[in-house]
Protein backbone atom coordinates (compact mmCIF):
# COMPACT_ATOMS: atom_id res chain seq x y z
CA UNK A 1 0.00 0.00 0.00
CA UNK A 2 2.80 2.36 0.97
CA UNK A 3 4.60 1.53 -2.26
CA UNK A 4 1.41 2.24 -4.12
CA UNK A 5 1.11 5.73 -2.68
CA UNK A 6 4.72 6.44 -3.39
CA UNK A 7 4.40 5.53 -7.06
CA UNK A 8 1.22 7.59 -7.30
CA UNK A 9 3.11 10.51 -5.84
CA UNK A 10 5.97 10.06 -8.30
CA UNK A 11 3.52 9.83 -11.18
CA UNK A 12 1.86 13.06 -10.14
CA UNK A 13 5.23 14.70 -9.76
CA UNK A 14 6.26 13.55 -13.25
CA UNK A 15 2.98 14.74 -14.68
CA UNK A 16 3.48 18.07 -13.03
CA UNK A 17 7.06 18.60 -14.14
CA UNK A 18 6.29 17.32 -17.62
CA UNK A 19 3.41 19.66 -18.28
CA UNK A 20 4.82 22.47 -16.21
CA UNK A 21 6.72 24.09 -19.00
CA UNK A 22 3.80 24.09 -21.39
CA UNK A 23 0.97 25.18 -19.14
CA UNK A 24 0.00 28.81 -18.80
CA UNK A 25 1.20 30.84 -15.83
CA UNK A 26 -1.47 31.96 -13.38
CA UNK A 27 -3.22 34.92 -14.93
CA UNK A 28 -2.96 38.44 -13.58
CA UNK A 29 0.61 38.52 -12.29
CA UNK A 30 2.55 39.85 -15.22
CA UNK A 31 0.76 41.21 -18.24
CA UNK A 32 1.60 40.37 -21.82
CA UNK A 33 3.52 43.08 -23.63
CA UNK A 34 3.69 43.90 -27.30
CA UNK A 35 6.72 45.11 -29.26
CA UNK A 36 4.64 45.77 -32.35
CA UNK A 37 5.70 49.03 -33.96
CA UNK A 38 9.10 49.12 -32.22
CA UNK A 39 12.25 48.82 -34.30
CA UNK A 40 15.02 46.35 -33.45
CA UNK A 41 17.34 49.34 -32.98
CA UNK A 42 14.99 50.96 -30.46
CA UNK A 43 14.70 47.74 -28.53
CA UNK A 44 18.45 47.19 -28.51
CA UNK A 45 19.03 50.67 -27.17
CA UNK A 46 16.85 49.95 -24.16
CA UNK A 47 18.29 46.52 -23.30
CA UNK A 48 20.46 45.57 -20.33
CA UNK A 49 23.41 43.24 -20.79
CA UNK A 50 21.43 40.40 -19.20
CA UNK A 51 18.58 40.95 -21.66
CA UNK A 52 20.97 41.01 -24.59
CA UNK A 53 22.66 37.80 -23.53
CA UNK A 54 19.23 36.25 -22.94
CA UNK A 55 18.32 36.91 -26.58
CA UNK A 56 21.49 35.08 -27.63
CA UNK A 57 20.49 31.96 -25.68
CA UNK A 58 18.65 28.95 -27.05
CA UNK A 59 17.50 26.15 -24.73
CA UNK A 60 16.00 22.74 -25.49
CA UNK A 61 12.32 22.54 -24.51
CA UNK A 62 13.12 19.70 -22.13
CA UNK A 63 15.72 21.77 -20.27
CA UNK A 64 13.28 24.44 -19.10
CA UNK A 65 11.44 24.93 -15.84
CA UNK A 66 8.30 26.94 -15.91
CA UNK A 67 9.17 30.62 -15.59
CA UNK A 68 12.71 30.28 -16.98
CA UNK A 69 11.87 32.09 -20.20
CA UNK A 70 10.52 35.08 -18.27
CA UNK A 71 13.22 35.08 -15.63
CA UNK A 72 16.16 34.86 -18.04
CA UNK A 73 14.50 36.69 -20.96
CA UNK A 74 15.46 33.80 -23.21
CA UNK A 75 15.64 34.46 -26.92
CA UNK A 76 14.92 31.02 -28.27
CA UNK A 77 13.77 27.48 -27.55
CA UNK A 78 14.21 24.41 -29.73
CA UNK A 79 13.13 20.86 -30.20
CA UNK A 80 15.96 18.40 -30.70
CA UNK A 81 15.17 15.51 -33.04
CA UNK A 82 12.04 13.77 -31.73
CA UNK A 83 11.46 16.24 -28.90
CA UNK A 84 7.72 16.80 -29.09
CA UNK A 85 4.92 17.92 -26.82
CA UNK A 86 3.24 15.00 -25.05
CA UNK A 87 0.20 15.57 -27.20
CA UNK A 88 1.79 15.32 -30.64
CA UNK A 89 -1.02 16.97 -32.59
CA UNK A 90 -1.24 20.42 -34.22
CA UNK A 91 -3.22 21.56 -31.14
CA UNK A 92 -0.56 20.17 -28.83
CA UNK A 93 2.22 22.04 -30.65
CA UNK A 94 0.26 25.31 -30.77
CA UNK A 95 -0.48 25.10 -27.04
CA UNK A 96 3.19 24.48 -26.30
CA UNK A 97 4.45 27.32 -28.54
CA UNK A 98 1.90 29.77 -27.19
CA UNK A 99 2.82 28.81 -23.63
CA UNK A 100 6.50 29.58 -24.26
CA UNK A 101 5.64 32.75 -26.15
CA UNK A 102 3.39 34.03 -23.36
CA UNK A 103 6.24 33.54 -20.91
CA UNK A 104 8.44 35.72 -23.14
CA UNK A 105 5.73 38.38 -23.46
CA UNK A 106 5.86 38.80 -19.69
CA UNK A 107 9.49 39.94 -19.68
CA UNK A 108 10.29 43.61 -19.14
CA UNK A 109 10.48 44.31 -22.88
CA UNK A 110 8.13 41.58 -24.09
CA UNK A 111 10.34 40.36 -26.93
CA UNK A 112 8.82 37.13 -28.25
CA UNK A 113 10.85 33.95 -28.07
CA UNK A 114 11.50 32.16 -31.37
CA UNK A 115 11.15 28.38 -31.62
CA UNK A 116 13.37 26.31 -33.90
CA UNK A 117 13.18 22.68 -34.97
CA UNK A 118 14.42 20.30 -37.63
CA UNK A 119 11.75 20.05 -40.31
CA UNK A 120 14.16 18.55 -42.80
CA UNK A 121 11.81 16.46 -44.95
CA UNK A 122 8.43 17.85 -44.14
CA UNK A 123 7.45 18.68 -40.56
CA UNK A 124 9.03 15.42 -39.49
CA UNK A 125 8.68 15.62 -35.71
CA UNK A 126 4.92 16.07 -36.03
CA UNK A 127 2.92 12.87 -35.96
CA UNK A 128 1.01 12.18 -39.19
CA UNK A 129 2.52 15.06 -41.12
CA UNK A 130 3.36 14.64 -44.79
CA UNK A 131 6.85 13.17 -44.88
CA UNK A 132 8.74 14.17 -48.02
CA UNK A 133 11.62 12.34 -49.69
CA UNK A 134 14.94 13.10 -48.01
CA UNK A 135 17.13 15.55 -49.94
CA UNK A 136 19.00 12.83 -51.85
CA UNK A 137 15.72 11.94 -53.61
CA UNK A 138 14.99 15.55 -54.47
CA UNK A 139 18.54 15.79 -55.82
CA UNK A 140 17.73 12.87 -58.13
CA UNK A 141 14.86 14.90 -59.60
CA UNK A 142 17.24 17.77 -60.31
CA UNK A 143 19.90 15.46 -61.76
CA UNK A 144 17.23 14.40 -64.27
CA UNK A 145 15.94 17.86 -65.06
CA UNK A 146 16.98 21.11 -63.45
CA UNK A 147 13.70 22.89 -63.95
CA UNK A 148 11.74 20.02 -62.44
CA UNK A 149 14.27 19.90 -59.62
CA UNK A 150 13.81 23.58 -58.85
CA UNK A 151 10.04 23.10 -58.78
CA UNK A 152 10.37 20.06 -56.54
CA UNK A 153 12.54 21.98 -54.09
CA UNK A 154 10.09 24.86 -53.98
CA UNK A 155 7.19 22.45 -53.44
CA UNK A 156 9.09 20.69 -50.65
CA UNK A 157 9.71 24.04 -48.96
CA UNK A 158 6.10 25.08 -49.36
CA UNK A 159 4.63 21.85 -47.96
CA UNK A 160 7.04 21.89 -45.03
CA UNK A 161 6.18 25.51 -44.28
CA UNK A 162 2.42 24.99 -44.56
CA UNK A 163 2.45 22.05 -42.18
CA UNK A 164 4.80 23.82 -39.77
CA UNK A 165 2.57 26.89 -39.70
CA UNK A 166 -0.44 24.67 -39.05
CA UNK A 167 1.27 23.78 -35.78
CA UNK A 168 2.52 27.32 -35.07
CA UNK A 169 6.19 26.68 -35.95
CA UNK A 170 8.09 29.30 -37.96
CA UNK A 171 11.78 28.39 -38.04
CA UNK A 172 13.36 25.23 -39.40
CA UNK A 173 16.99 24.15 -39.22
CA UNK A 174 17.06 23.37 -42.95
CA UNK A 175 18.23 22.98 -45.64
CA UNK A 176 21.59 21.21 -45.58
CA UNK A 177 23.85 22.87 -48.14
CA UNK A 178 26.82 20.59 -47.62
CA UNK A 179 28.03 18.71 -50.69
CA UNK A 180 28.60 15.08 -49.74
CA UNK A 181 31.67 13.74 -51.44
CA UNK A 182 32.13 10.51 -49.52
CA UNK A 183 29.01 8.36 -49.20
CA UNK A 184 30.31 6.76 -46.00
CA UNK A 185 29.18 9.98 -44.31
CA UNK A 186 26.00 9.34 -42.31
CA UNK A 187 24.43 12.61 -43.49
CA UNK A 188 24.80 11.89 -47.20
CA UNK A 189 21.01 11.67 -47.59
CA UNK A 190 20.60 15.17 -46.17
CA UNK A 191 22.82 16.47 -48.98
CA UNK A 192 21.09 16.89 -52.34
CA UNK A 193 24.05 15.67 -54.36
CA UNK A 194 27.76 15.29 -54.78
CA UNK A 195 27.31 17.95 -57.49
CA UNK A 196 27.69 21.54 -56.27
CA UNK A 197 25.41 22.91 -58.99
CA UNK A 198 22.52 20.72 -57.88
CA UNK A 199 22.97 21.61 -54.22
CA UNK A 200 23.04 25.29 -55.20
CA UNK A 201 19.86 25.05 -57.26
CA UNK A 202 17.93 22.99 -54.71
CA UNK A 203 19.03 24.95 -51.68
CA UNK A 204 17.99 28.33 -53.08
CA UNK A 205 14.60 27.00 -54.17
CA UNK A 206 13.73 25.18 -50.97
CA UNK A 207 14.58 28.37 -49.06
CA UNK A 208 12.18 30.35 -51.27
CA UNK A 209 9.49 27.74 -50.79
CA UNK A 210 9.90 27.92 -47.01
CA UNK A 211 10.25 31.66 -46.63
CA UNK A 212 7.50 32.60 -49.14
CA UNK A 213 5.20 30.55 -46.99
CA UNK A 214 6.02 32.02 -43.62
CA UNK A 215 8.86 29.85 -42.29
CA UNK A 216 12.45 31.02 -41.80
CA UNK A 217 15.15 28.79 -43.23
CA UNK A 218 18.49 28.02 -41.61
CA UNK A 219 21.11 27.00 -44.10
CA UNK A 220 23.40 24.43 -42.58
CA UNK A 221 26.05 23.37 -41.96
CA UNK A 222 28.75 25.86 -42.85
CA UNK A 223 31.33 24.85 -44.26
CA UNK A 224 32.99 21.73 -45.60
CA UNK A 225 31.07 19.02 -43.74
CA UNK A 226 30.87 16.89 -46.88
CA UNK A 227 34.62 17.19 -47.43
CA UNK A 228 35.66 15.75 -44.07
CA UNK A 229 38.25 13.01 -44.39
CA UNK A 230 36.84 9.52 -45.02
CA UNK A 231 33.27 10.86 -44.76
CA UNK A 232 33.56 11.20 -41.00
CA UNK A 233 30.76 13.17 -39.40
CA UNK A 234 32.13 16.17 -37.49
CA UNK A 235 35.55 15.42 -38.97
CA UNK A 236 38.18 17.63 -40.54
CA UNK A 237 38.34 18.89 -44.13
CA UNK A 238 41.52 20.14 -45.76
CA UNK A 239 40.56 23.06 -47.96
CA UNK A 240 42.59 25.81 -49.59
CA UNK A 241 40.95 29.00 -50.88
CA UNK A 242 40.10 27.29 -54.19
CA UNK A 243 38.55 24.38 -52.29
CA UNK A 244 36.44 26.76 -50.24
CA UNK A 245 35.29 28.62 -53.32
CA UNK A 246 34.35 25.36 -54.99
CA UNK A 247 31.80 24.45 -52.28
CA UNK A 248 30.67 27.98 -51.49
CA UNK A 249 28.08 28.55 -54.30
CA UNK A 250 25.14 26.95 -52.39
CA UNK A 251 25.64 29.45 -49.54
CA UNK A 252 26.04 32.38 -51.91
CA UNK A 253 22.79 31.43 -53.68
CA UNK A 254 21.06 30.95 -50.33
CA UNK A 255 22.13 34.40 -49.18
CA UNK A 256 20.81 35.83 -52.44
CA UNK A 257 17.57 33.93 -51.91
CA UNK A 258 17.27 35.71 -48.57
CA UNK A 259 18.07 32.88 -46.13
CA UNK A 260 17.48 34.34 -42.68
CA UNK A 261 19.81 32.21 -40.56
CA UNK A 262 22.76 29.84 -40.70
CA UNK A 263 24.23 27.04 -38.59
CA UNK A 264 27.97 26.32 -38.63
CA UNK A 265 29.19 22.79 -39.03
CA UNK A 266 30.42 20.65 -36.14
CA UNK A 267 33.32 19.81 -38.44
CA UNK A 268 36.66 21.57 -38.87
CA UNK A 269 38.41 23.19 -41.78
CA UNK A 270 42.18 22.76 -41.74
CA UNK A 271 42.03 21.70 -38.11
CA UNK A 272 39.95 24.66 -36.88
CA UNK A 273 36.41 23.93 -35.68
CA UNK A 274 33.95 25.88 -37.80
CA UNK A 275 32.27 27.24 -34.67
CA UNK A 276 35.45 29.14 -33.79
CA UNK A 277 36.56 30.08 -37.28
CA UNK A 278 36.47 33.87 -37.36
CA UNK A 279 38.02 33.70 -40.84
CA UNK A 280 35.07 31.84 -42.28
CA UNK A 281 32.15 32.99 -40.12
CA UNK A 282 32.90 36.69 -39.83
CA UNK A 283 35.45 37.59 -42.48
CA UNK A 284 34.13 35.44 -45.31
CA UNK A 285 30.44 34.94 -44.59
CA UNK A 286 29.38 38.14 -42.88
CA UNK A 287 31.88 40.67 -44.22
CA UNK A 288 32.88 39.42 -47.65
CA UNK A 289 29.58 37.77 -48.62
CA UNK A 290 27.36 40.21 -46.77
CA UNK A 291 25.26 37.68 -44.84
CA UNK A 292 22.84 39.74 -42.72
CA UNK A 293 21.00 36.94 -40.96
CA UNK A 294 22.16 35.39 -37.70
CA UNK A 295 24.32 32.42 -36.89
CA UNK A 296 22.99 29.80 -34.46
CA UNK A 297 25.44 27.25 -33.13
CA UNK A 298 24.76 23.51 -33.40
CA UNK A 299 23.76 21.15 -30.60
CA UNK A 300 26.11 21.76 -27.65
CA UNK A 301 28.80 22.43 -30.27
CA UNK A 302 30.68 24.94 -28.10
CA UNK A 303 31.81 22.14 -25.80
CA UNK A 304 33.90 20.78 -28.69
CA UNK A 305 35.94 23.98 -29.13
CA UNK A 306 39.45 24.81 -28.02
CA UNK A 307 40.08 26.80 -24.86
CA UNK A 308 39.91 24.07 -22.26
CA UNK A 309 36.81 25.27 -20.42
CA UNK A 310 33.27 26.34 -21.22
CA UNK A 311 33.85 30.03 -20.61
CA UNK A 312 36.81 30.16 -22.99
CA UNK A 313 34.83 28.16 -25.55
CA UNK A 314 31.99 30.68 -25.33
CA UNK A 315 34.43 33.55 -25.93
CA UNK A 316 35.88 31.75 -28.94
CA UNK A 317 32.49 31.12 -30.54
CA UNK A 318 31.00 34.56 -29.95
CA UNK A 319 34.15 36.36 -31.03
CA UNK A 320 34.27 34.19 -34.16
CA UNK A 321 30.78 35.37 -35.10
CA UNK A 322 28.25 32.99 -33.52
CA UNK A 323 25.15 35.05 -32.61
CA UNK A 324 22.91 32.59 -30.79
CA UNK A 325 24.02 29.56 -28.83
CA UNK A 326 22.18 26.23 -28.80
CA UNK A 327 23.18 25.29 -25.27
CA UNK A 328 21.76 21.82 -24.96
CA UNK A 329 23.86 19.92 -22.47
CA UNK A 330 21.10 20.08 -19.91
CA UNK A 331 19.69 23.14 -18.12
CA UNK A 332 23.07 24.09 -16.62
CA UNK A 333 24.60 24.60 -20.05
CA UNK A 334 22.33 27.53 -20.92
CA UNK A 335 22.26 28.94 -17.39
CA UNK A 336 26.07 28.92 -17.31
CA UNK A 337 26.27 30.33 -20.81
CA UNK A 338 24.32 33.39 -19.68
CA UNK A 339 26.51 33.87 -16.63
CA UNK A 340 29.82 33.34 -18.44
CA UNK A 341 29.00 35.57 -21.38
CA UNK A 342 28.10 38.48 -19.11
CA UNK A 343 31.37 38.01 -17.24
CA UNK A 344 33.28 37.89 -20.51
CA UNK A 345 31.78 41.21 -21.57
CA UNK A 346 32.52 42.79 -18.19
CA UNK A 347 36.09 41.52 -18.33
CA UNK A 348 36.53 42.99 -21.82
CA UNK A 349 37.05 39.56 -23.39
CA UNK A 350 34.03 39.87 -25.66
CA UNK A 351 33.40 43.38 -26.98
CA UNK A 352 29.94 44.82 -26.40
CA UNK A 353 29.87 45.77 -30.08
CA UNK A 354 29.93 42.06 -30.89
CA UNK A 355 27.01 41.46 -28.51
CA UNK A 356 25.04 44.34 -30.02
CA UNK A 357 25.64 43.05 -33.52
CA UNK A 358 24.43 39.58 -32.53
CA UNK A 359 21.31 40.88 -30.80
CA UNK A 360 20.42 43.21 -33.63
CA UNK A 361 20.61 40.34 -36.09
CA UNK A 362 18.35 38.22 -33.88
CA UNK A 363 15.81 41.01 -33.36
CA UNK A 364 15.69 41.81 -37.08
CA UNK A 365 15.05 38.14 -37.75
CA UNK A 366 12.19 38.07 -35.27
CA UNK A 367 10.66 41.19 -36.72
CA UNK A 368 11.00 39.91 -40.29
CA UNK A 369 9.22 36.66 -39.59
CA UNK A 370 6.31 38.53 -38.09
CA UNK A 371 6.88 37.67 -34.44
CA UNK A 372 6.72 41.31 -33.33
CA UNK A 373 3.26 41.81 -34.78
CA UNK A 374 1.71 38.39 -34.23
CA UNK A 375 3.67 36.35 -31.72
CA UNK A 376 0.87 33.94 -30.85
CA UNK A 377 -0.83 31.38 -33.05
CA UNK A 378 -4.59 31.73 -32.95
CA UNK A 379 -5.63 28.32 -34.07
CA UNK A 380 -4.09 25.00 -35.11
CA UNK A 381 -4.51 23.89 -38.72
CA UNK A 382 -4.38 20.51 -40.42
CA UNK A 383 -1.26 18.54 -41.34
CA UNK A 384 -0.81 15.51 -43.57
CA UNK A 385 -3.61 16.82 -45.76
CA UNK A 386 -4.56 15.06 -49.00
CA UNK A 387 -3.26 17.77 -51.32
CA UNK A 388 0.18 17.71 -49.69
CA UNK A 389 0.31 13.92 -49.69
CA UNK A 390 -0.59 13.92 -53.39
CA UNK A 391 2.18 16.44 -54.15
CA UNK A 392 4.65 14.38 -52.10
CA UNK A 393 3.64 11.26 -54.01
CA UNK A 394 4.48 13.05 -57.26
CA UNK A 395 7.90 13.97 -55.85
CA UNK A 396 8.47 10.30 -55.00
CA UNK A 397 7.60 9.23 -58.55
CA UNK A 398 9.94 11.86 -60.00
CA UNK A 399 12.81 10.90 -57.70
CA UNK A 400 13.07 7.27 -58.77
CA UNK A 401 16.14 6.26 -60.73
CA UNK A 402 16.12 3.21 -62.97
CA UNK A 403 19.66 1.87 -62.89
CA UNK A 404 19.16 -1.43 -64.70
CA UNK A 405 16.44 -2.83 -66.94
CA UNK A 406 17.21 -6.09 -68.73
CA UNK A 407 14.80 -7.70 -71.19
CA UNK A 408 12.30 -4.89 -70.87
CA UNK A 409 11.55 -6.05 -67.34
CA UNK A 410 9.79 -2.86 -66.29
CA UNK A 411 7.55 -2.57 -69.35
CA UNK A 412 6.39 -6.17 -68.85
CA UNK A 413 5.52 -5.71 -65.20
CA UNK A 414 1.89 -4.52 -65.62
CA UNK A 415 1.07 -7.57 -67.77
CA UNK A 416 1.99 -10.16 -65.12
CA UNK A 417 -0.75 -11.93 -63.20
CA UNK A 418 1.13 -13.30 -60.19
CA UNK A 419 3.59 -11.03 -58.45
CA UNK A 420 5.48 -11.69 -55.24
CA UNK A 421 6.54 -8.70 -53.18
CA UNK A 422 9.30 -9.43 -50.66
CA UNK A 423 11.52 -7.69 -48.14
CA UNK A 424 11.11 -5.78 -44.91
CA UNK A 425 11.29 -2.46 -46.78
CA UNK A 426 8.16 -3.26 -48.78
CA UNK A 427 5.88 -2.73 -45.82
CA UNK A 428 7.63 -0.47 -43.36
CA UNK A 429 6.85 3.24 -43.13
CA UNK A 430 9.78 3.88 -40.80
CA UNK A 431 12.28 2.31 -43.17
CA UNK A 432 11.06 4.28 -46.17
CA UNK A 433 11.26 7.51 -44.14
CA UNK A 434 14.74 6.97 -42.65
CA UNK A 435 16.27 9.15 -39.91
CA UNK A 436 14.80 12.44 -38.69
CA UNK A 437 11.28 11.01 -38.68
CA UNK A 438 9.24 11.20 -35.45
CA UNK A 439 12.47 10.39 -33.62
CA UNK A 440 15.98 11.68 -34.20
CA UNK A 441 17.33 8.37 -35.51
CA UNK A 442 14.07 7.19 -37.08
CA UNK A 443 12.96 3.59 -36.63
CA UNK A 444 11.30 0.63 -38.27
CA UNK A 445 7.58 0.07 -38.26
CA UNK A 446 4.35 2.01 -38.55
CA UNK A 447 5.65 5.12 -36.84
CA UNK A 448 3.41 7.61 -38.64
CA UNK A 449 0.65 7.72 -41.24
CA UNK A 450 1.59 6.82 -44.80
CA UNK A 451 1.37 4.36 -47.67
CA UNK A 452 3.93 1.59 -47.91
CA UNK A 453 5.52 0.44 -51.16
CA UNK A 454 3.46 -2.74 -50.89
CA UNK A 455 0.18 -0.89 -50.35
CA UNK A 456 0.93 1.26 -53.39
CA UNK A 457 1.52 -1.85 -55.49
CA UNK A 458 -1.63 -3.51 -54.16
CA UNK A 459 -3.71 -0.47 -55.08
CA UNK A 460 -2.19 -0.23 -58.54
CA UNK A 461 -2.65 -3.94 -59.27
CA UNK A 462 -6.19 -4.20 -57.94
CA UNK A 463 -8.26 -6.33 -60.34
CA UNK A 464 -5.28 -6.87 -62.63
CA UNK A 465 -2.80 -9.09 -60.81
CA UNK A 466 -2.61 -11.06 -57.60
CA UNK A 467 -0.03 -9.66 -55.20
CA UNK A 468 1.47 -11.95 -52.58
CA UNK A 469 3.61 -10.46 -49.81
CA UNK A 470 6.24 -12.50 -48.01
CA UNK A 471 8.75 -10.47 -46.07
CA UNK A 472 11.29 -13.29 -46.02
CA UNK A 473 10.68 -14.15 -49.66
CA UNK A 474 9.71 -17.67 -48.63
CA UNK A 475 6.21 -18.78 -49.63
CA UNK A 476 4.44 -21.54 -51.60
CA UNK A 477 3.60 -20.55 -55.14
CA UNK A 478 4.61 -19.78 -58.67
CA UNK A 479 5.20 -16.23 -59.76
CA UNK A 480 5.70 -14.28 -62.96
CA UNK A 481 7.94 -11.75 -61.22
CA UNK A 482 9.28 -10.76 -57.84
CA UNK A 483 9.54 -7.20 -56.57
CA UNK A 484 12.18 -7.31 -53.84
CA UNK A 485 12.60 -4.29 -51.60
CA UNK A 486 15.95 -3.92 -49.87
CA UNK A 487 17.70 -1.06 -48.15
CA UNK A 488 19.27 0.50 -45.08
CA UNK A 489 18.05 0.57 -41.49
CA UNK A 490 17.13 4.11 -40.37
CA UNK A 491 19.94 6.28 -38.98
CA UNK A 492 20.91 9.92 -38.48
CA UNK A 493 24.20 11.77 -38.24
CA UNK A 494 27.20 9.87 -36.82
CA UNK A 495 25.20 6.65 -36.35
CA UNK A 496 25.07 6.49 -40.13
CA UNK A 497 28.82 6.79 -40.67
CA UNK A 498 30.38 3.68 -42.17
CA UNK A 499 34.07 3.04 -41.99
CA UNK A 500 34.13 0.57 -44.82
CA UNK A 501 31.47 -0.71 -47.25
CA UNK A 502 27.74 -0.01 -47.27
CA UNK A 503 26.70 -3.57 -47.69
CA UNK A 504 23.33 -5.14 -48.36
CA UNK A 505 21.88 -6.17 -44.97
CA UNK A 506 22.07 -9.86 -44.10
CA UNK A 507 18.31 -9.91 -43.75
CA UNK A 508 17.96 -8.67 -47.33
CA UNK A 509 20.61 -11.08 -48.65
CA UNK A 510 18.69 -13.97 -47.10
CA UNK A 511 15.49 -12.75 -48.72
CA UNK A 512 17.19 -12.33 -52.10
CA UNK A 513 18.55 -15.90 -51.99
CA UNK A 514 15.02 -17.14 -51.44
CA UNK A 515 13.51 -15.20 -54.32
CA UNK A 516 16.24 -16.09 -56.82
CA UNK A 517 14.88 -19.64 -56.53
CA UNK A 518 11.55 -18.81 -58.15
CA UNK A 519 13.32 -18.59 -61.50
CA UNK A 520 11.45 -15.53 -62.59
CA UNK A 521 12.54 -11.91 -63.09
CA UNK A 522 13.58 -10.19 -59.86
CA UNK A 523 13.06 -6.44 -59.75
CA UNK A 524 14.92 -4.79 -56.89
CA UNK A 525 13.83 -1.53 -55.29
CA UNK A 526 16.40 -0.03 -52.93
CA UNK A 527 15.44 2.24 -50.03
CA UNK A 528 18.68 3.91 -49.04
CA UNK A 529 20.15 7.25 -48.18
CA UNK A 530 23.05 6.79 -50.57
CA UNK A 531 24.47 4.40 -53.14
CA UNK A 532 25.10 1.09 -51.42
CA UNK A 533 28.11 -1.01 -52.34
CA UNK A 534 26.35 -3.84 -54.15
CA UNK A 535 29.37 -5.51 -55.73
CA UNK A 536 28.22 -7.87 -58.48
CA UNK A 537 24.95 -8.80 -56.81
CA UNK A 538 22.96 -6.51 -59.12
CA UNK A 539 23.76 -8.75 -62.07
CA UNK A 540 21.15 -11.16 -60.73
CA UNK A 541 18.49 -8.48 -60.87
CA UNK A 542 16.52 -7.92 -64.10
CA UNK A 543 15.74 -4.44 -63.00
CA UNK A 544 17.11 -2.19 -60.28
CA UNK A 545 15.51 1.00 -59.00
CA UNK A 546 16.98 3.47 -56.51
CA UNK A 547 14.04 4.90 -54.55
CA UNK A 548 16.19 6.69 -51.91
CA UNK A 549 14.27 7.52 -48.73
CA UNK A 550 10.89 8.43 -50.21
CA UNK A 551 9.02 9.33 -47.01
CA UNK A 552 5.40 8.62 -46.21
CA UNK A 553 4.03 8.46 -49.76
CA UNK A 554 5.25 5.07 -51.00
CA UNK A 555 2.41 5.02 -53.56
CA UNK A 556 4.59 7.13 -55.87
CA UNK A 557 6.65 4.03 -56.66
CA UNK A 558 3.73 2.02 -58.04
CA UNK A 559 2.67 5.07 -60.10
CA UNK A 560 5.83 4.59 -62.15
CA UNK A 561 6.03 0.77 -62.08
CA UNK A 562 2.40 0.16 -63.02
CA UNK A 563 1.18 3.49 -64.31
CA UNK A 564 1.86 5.66 -67.31
CA UNK A 565 4.64 7.69 -65.66
CA UNK A 566 8.20 7.06 -66.79
CA UNK A 567 11.45 7.28 -64.83
CA UNK A 568 12.72 10.85 -64.89
CA UNK A 569 15.19 10.88 -61.99
CA UNK A 570 18.94 10.44 -62.45
CA UNK A 571 21.44 9.49 -59.81
CA UNK A 572 22.78 12.51 -57.88
CA UNK A 573 25.65 10.35 -56.58
CA UNK A 574 28.15 8.09 -58.31
CA UNK A 575 27.49 4.39 -57.66
CA UNK A 576 30.52 2.27 -57.08
CA UNK A 577 30.97 -1.45 -56.71
CA UNK A 578 32.92 -0.91 -53.52
CA UNK A 579 34.00 2.23 -51.66
CA UNK A 580 36.50 3.98 -53.95
CA UNK A 581 36.15 1.06 -56.36
CA UNK A 582 34.92 0.65 -59.94
CA UNK A 583 32.10 2.94 -61.05
CA UNK A 584 28.88 1.07 -61.83
CA UNK A 585 26.62 4.03 -62.58
CA UNK A 586 28.14 7.49 -62.98
CA UNK A 587 26.61 10.70 -61.64
CA UNK A 588 23.58 11.61 -63.78
CA UNK A 589 22.93 8.05 -64.90
CA UNK A 590 19.41 6.70 -65.26
CA UNK A 591 17.31 4.75 -67.77
CA UNK A 592 13.74 5.08 -68.95
CA UNK A 593 11.13 2.32 -69.42
C1 LIG B 1 18.87 15.31 -30.32
C2 LIG B 1 19.21 15.75 -31.73
C3 LIG B 1 20.59 16.22 -31.75
C4 LIG B 1 21.53 15.17 -31.17
C5 LIG B 1 22.93 15.67 -31.13
C6 LIG B 1 19.85 14.28 -29.84
O1 LIG B 1 19.57 13.90 -28.56
O2 LIG B 1 17.59 14.79 -30.31
O3 LIG B 1 18.35 16.75 -32.17
O4 LIG B 1 20.93 16.51 -33.06
O5 LIG B 1 21.13 14.78 -29.90
O6 LIG B 1 23.80 14.75 -30.54
C1 LIG C 1 22.47 18.54 -35.93
C2 LIG C 1 21.75 19.70 -36.55
C3 LIG C 1 20.41 19.90 -35.90
C4 LIG C 1 20.57 20.02 -34.41
C5 LIG C 1 19.25 20.21 -33.67
C6 LIG C 1 22.46 18.59 -34.44
O1 LIG C 1 22.97 17.41 -33.91
O2 LIG C 1 23.80 18.50 -36.40
O3 LIG C 1 21.62 19.49 -37.93
O4 LIG C 1 19.79 21.02 -36.46
O5 LIG C 1 21.18 18.86 -33.91
O6 LIG C 1 18.50 19.06 -33.67
Could you explain how this protein is built, in words?
The protein is of the alpha/beta class and about 600 residues long. The chain folds into 2 domains: about 50-130 and about 155-185 and about 210-370, Glycoside hydrolase, family 3, N-terminal domain (TIM Barrel, Alpha-Beta Barrel), CATH 3.20.20.300; about 400-585, Glycoside hydrolase family 3 C-terminal domain (Rossmann fold, 3-Layer(aba) Sandwich). It is about 35% helix and about 10% strand. The chain contains 20 helices and 18 strands. The protein has helices at about 1-20, 40-45, 50-55, 70, 90-105, 135-145, 145-165, 195-210, 240-245, 250-255, 280-290, 310-320, 330-345, 350-370, 385-400, 410, 430-435, 455-460, 505-515, 555-560; strands spanning about 55-60, 75-80, 115, 220, 235, 260-265, 270, 270-275, 295, 325, 400-405, 420, 465-470, 480-485, 520-525, 545, 575, 585. The strands form 5 sheets. The protein has a 6-stranded mixed sheet with strand order 11-16-15-14-12-13, sandwiched between helices. A 4-stranded parallel sheet has the order 3-2-1-10. Helix 6 (about 135-145) crosses helix 8 (about 195-210). The longest helix has 21 residues, at about 145-165. It starts with a helix and ends in an 8-residue tail after the last strand. The model is unreliable at about 10-30 (pLDDT under 50). One beta-D-glucopyranose (BGC) binds next to loops.
Amino acid sequence: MKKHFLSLFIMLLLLFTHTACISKAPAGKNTLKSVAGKTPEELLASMTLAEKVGQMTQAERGDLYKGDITEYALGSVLSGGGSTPAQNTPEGWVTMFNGFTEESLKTRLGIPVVYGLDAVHGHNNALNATILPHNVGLGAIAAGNQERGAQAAYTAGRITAEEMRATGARWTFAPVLGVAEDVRWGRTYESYSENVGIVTLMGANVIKGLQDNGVAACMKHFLGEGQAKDGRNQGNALLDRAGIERIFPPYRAAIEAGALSLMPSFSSVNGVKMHESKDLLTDLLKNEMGFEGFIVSDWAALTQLSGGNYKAQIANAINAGVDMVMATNGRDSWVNFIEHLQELVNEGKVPITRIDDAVLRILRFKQRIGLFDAPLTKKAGAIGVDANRAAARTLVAESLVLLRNENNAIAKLPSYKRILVAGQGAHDIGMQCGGWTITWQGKHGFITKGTTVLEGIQNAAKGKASITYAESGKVEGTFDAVIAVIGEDPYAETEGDRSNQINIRTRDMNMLREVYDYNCPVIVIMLSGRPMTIGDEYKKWEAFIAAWLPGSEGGGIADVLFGSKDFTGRTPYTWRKTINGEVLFPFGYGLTK
